[in-house]
Amino acid sequence: MNNGPELVERMQKVLDTLRPLIQADGGDMTVVNVENNVVYVKLHGACVGCPMSTYTLKLGVEEALREHFPFIQEVVALEGD
């Protein structure tokens, strides 16, 4: 399996489908890296420090990514703009 930039780019495209909902609340996120079946995303804007970002991450982003990439075990947020 290729964990390089191509995989990150493909995951970013899946995240792009959720982006309007995330941005509607003043936030955003970017796929940073994939390592050992864990996807690392960076939170931006209102997502940083938001208590609801955990729910968005687990129930929205993680599920959407798993639909396209079943090997994903977890999505982890790296906070900070």
Q: What is the terminal-to-terminal distance? A: 30 Å
Question: What does the overall shape look like?
Answer: globular
> Class, according to the CATH hierarchy?
Alpha Beta
Query: Do you know the CATH topology?
Result: GMP Synthetase, Chain A, domain 3
CATH H level, superfamily name: Fe-S cluster assembly (FSCA)
Beta percentage is: 25-35%
Decide which structural class fits the backbone. alpha+beta
Q: Return residue spans where pLDDT drops below 50 for at least 5 consecutive residues.
A: none
Query: What is the H/E order?
Result: HEEHE
Give the fraction of residues assigned to helices: 40-55%
Main sheet: which strands, in order across? Answer: 1-2-3
| CATH architecture term | 2-Layer Sandwich
Q: What is the averaged pLDDT score?
A: 88
> Gyration radius, to the nearest Å?
12 Å
Continuous helix count: 2
Integer count of domains: 1
Strand count: 3
Task: Report the sheet with the most strands, covering strand number, pairing sense and barrel closure.
Answer: 3 strands, mixed
Overview of this protein structure:
44% of the residues lie in helices and 27% in strands. The protein is globular. It has a 3-stranded mixed sheet. The protein has helices spanning 5-24, 53-68, and strands at 27-35, 38-45, 74-78. Helix 1 packs across helix 2 (53-68). The chain has one domain: GMP Synthetase, Chain A, domain 3, CATH 3.30.300.130. The model has no long low-confidence stretch (mean pLDDT 88). With 81 residues, the protein is α+β, with helices and mostly antiparallel strands. The relative contact order is 0.22. Belongs to the NifU family. Residues 12-76 form the NIF system FeS cluster assembly NifU C-terminal domain. This is NIF system FeS cluster assembly NifU C-terminal domain-containing protein. GO terms for molecular function: iron ion binding; iron-sulfur cluster binding. It comes from candidate division TM6 bacterium JCVI TM6SC1.
